[in-house]
């Protein structure tokens, strides 16, 4: 292979750094109008009065949409369900007078300019009848219940039934630890705010209006489906385009309310409309839910874990049962005979939570892996040794299946060696550097390695170039680049002659980008379609007059350097561009669906693994924590592009530092409202917070997960970091801090 | 954001005239705070009067050894100015601890003095806030008040429903150093020129939390003058915050000392992030004068400085944190 495995530079890099790459709110058309959202201010109750008269009086204002005058939309809940909707009744913007959460959109002002819309929005008067609300998870833990079942269970399995008697085993264990963990809500906050530009293309077929929608989304097909269902459009009336996404982290997995509002306004006004949210409004939809966890571990003196309990309660909204996989990971990592894993949710007067990078995984991992660290100390065992002692060779949570591949031991070995772990003094508070305490901590990480079905198209163009497309997204991860590499290698073409396109509902259907499954899923589809196109080209060549391939089978040829060649006699060759002539001068295209063989994959538990090693400095007098260096060793199957892969893992590690030390959406429960709703007060790391980060990809071959052997990297870089940092803080200070984020006041008091 | 007009006068008289004829006009320097406040619907000027063409630039030495910082000089120019760096390294260090390079490139010295609080409740127009909407109450009291004041709020103001209660802090870093250096703010207005000692420039909330400072209506800041004494040998600015840059101080300390051997002969300690203005207490500073630079003496000063501090729940940790910061800063300044 020429390109797969090589550090190919981002094919979209030039367009991004020169500003040529356009994002949803940057597509301009003549006559564009601008919508500005008025956000509600109470957590629960009813709107008793909305007065838009002053807003409507502002020159340039076209309309103010509220629940009182909004156009008709679909009646049934099912129409509002996007492809990532949890069980329940999805939120409907401007549906009625009911307020379900603070920050809910209550009006849309549409005007000829953005500035006029924004000003007029400030003149809309909304009066409410407030009702008592509940937004505190910790105050409502007794309301926790089992989540409803639904489609979401497919990718988010519920915990397995308890096995053995964990309580009994715990009581009998000579060594045990019990830990309690709380982390607050977090908001994704991608750099690009949510925005939708709806271009009204006028009435086209049979007098039906057509809309071209530029949406910030991790799945254009999901946005299209949502809009079609709600507004009663057919597929040929709505095209959703999303070529670039300025960060997603899960926030774009579901259509956000600006999409609904922009389409509603465009349809009603028969005008093109753009609606963008403000940074403050980025705190008015999905988020990582506040979660409370308890872990108990019991072990025999030799370090064998004999009892494992992990219980989690996450917050959700009153209208949907959002769930995460929080506790199952503990069972996957440690095959303990007496285990109880429990997960429940508590509905609160909030918007539904939404998958945020490593949803549930980073939450649960933080709890189990900090508890493991505490257990290691109680046992006087090295934390790595304890993990090796209890290394799981099979996944009992899905019925004792072996792992399709699991090079976690190698992660421990290489990570520890790179970090210098063998020099660690097991005692806390033992290392000082100047006047700061130094601590070393580690943790294991695990994430899913799924491959979903997807479609792709490949075209050999009349110019002899290869164009491949699929309606997936690239949220900055490098999808454009790695798909170009796969296509180029599969058909043996120079990479400059290959172009990959995505983010358009006119392209073959693909799942949204998320769950770390895009490289595997779309990669498989691209390989499949290029292989199928190759077969088609072979047939064309074979049929041609006097073909040198007349007697050959497809298996006997290979594609390289823009040519098809006989394997046994490479001098027998035909340039791919000649196939266009053989096709009557027309391009040659193929569309394929890739589906991994479920008979093969379902017998295995398929996961990525990691080991994170972290050094922190803690200024004990002032409570400040600095992550001075970190090493992540990753086992994630084949690495398609070490440059973009490393970038993915580094990003995940920075997220880990962020989650461990800084991120926290603070709510004032008296008002049920997030208060630090801007990037000045909702902290994420700056360059000065990030020091030496090192990434190791351990070699891992996996013939099971998919034909490419690719497992995905979107989340695994994050999972182990918060636990490793918390463990390092303990090692530095001797203080166990089980809540996140570890701010200086938590270190001091 | 409301519609507004824009003027860019080239003389102080014309600038003052703009304000005289339009009571809802506002001066704009770098706009690094005002524009945000307008976007968030907190400030509603109908006319912006750009001060950047006024002859208020430059950094110049005055005959008596003082240094004059022009009101329209940017924070970045000031921090990197050779005279400031060599004569007032404390100020240079403090400015660079604030904001980001991009913001410092825009923000002016005069404008820095008029930064408004970062109180969450002040910024959220759906919330009661006596500073934003006098008489509406103070939602920060009893709310999420991790970043709020512990000094100068007076215990009588502790009621969230009080029409004058306010526990907001003043967010500037630069002003903390200016307080320690005892800068003098030169202003001019309808009643002519006057000098305001830095300690008197910003004010405590008292009964008018909507007023951040003592500038009179239609006055303009011309310059900030630094007295000759620059504490070049023994100084430090320590800023504690939730990330390493681009975050407002939970607690900050500016220290300037004069030493004779290991004995402190003059001491200035100014705190940021703890009150409605940069906080100084001469009595605590006096405790250090004539004393040896020891942790014990630092602790005595710190305890004295924080005596009477009041916590409001989430911010109560700041009382002890401020003492720790003072001890550390004094230690750093004497090393």
TrEMBL record, chain A:
List where Basic and acidic residues composition bias occurs. 136-148
Q: Where is this region: Disordered?
A: 136-166
Q: Which InterPro entries match?
A: Ald_Oxase/Xan_DH_a/b (IPR000674), Ald_Oxase/Xan_DH_a/b_sf (IPR036856), Ald_Oxase/xanthine_DH-like (IPR016208), AldOxase/xan_DH_MoCoBD1 (IPR008274), AldOxase/xan_DH_MoCoBD2 (IPR046867), AldOxase/xan_DH_Mopterin-bd_sf (IPR037165)
Provide the GO MF annotations for this entry: iron ion binding; oxidoreductase activity
So which domain of life are we looking at? Bacteria
Record-linked SMART domains: Ald_Xan_dh_C
By its UniProt entry, which Pfam families does this protein fall under?
Ald_Xan_dh_C, MoCoBD_1, MoCoBD_2
Domain Aldehyde oxidase/xanthine dehydrogenase a/b hammerhead intervals: 18-132
What is the residue range of the signal peptide feature? none
Q: What protein does this entry describe?
A: Xanthine dehydrogenase family protein molybdopterin-binding subunit
TrEMBL record, chain B:
A Pfam family matched in the record:
CO_deh_flav_C
UniProt cross-references to PANTHER family, sorted A to Z: OXIDOREDUCTASE (PTHR42659:SF1), XANTHINE DEHYDROGENASE SUBUNIT C-RELATED (PTHR42659)
Please verify whether the record's keywords include Flavoprotein.
Answer: yes
Ranges in a coiled coil:
none
What name does UniProt use for this protein?
A: Xanthine dehydrogenase family protein subunit M
Gene Ontology MF terms: FAD binding; oxidoreductase activity
Query: Which InterPro entries does the protein's record reference?
Result: CO_DH_flav_C, CO_DH_flav_C_dom_sf, Diverse_Substr_Oxidored, FAD-bd_PCMH, FAD-bd_PCMH-like_sf, FAD-bd_PCMH_sub1, FAD-bd_PCMH_sub2, Mopterin_DH_FAD-bd
Keyword vocabulary terms for this entry:
FAD, Flavoprotein
All copies of domain FAD-binding PCMH-type, residue ranges: 1-231
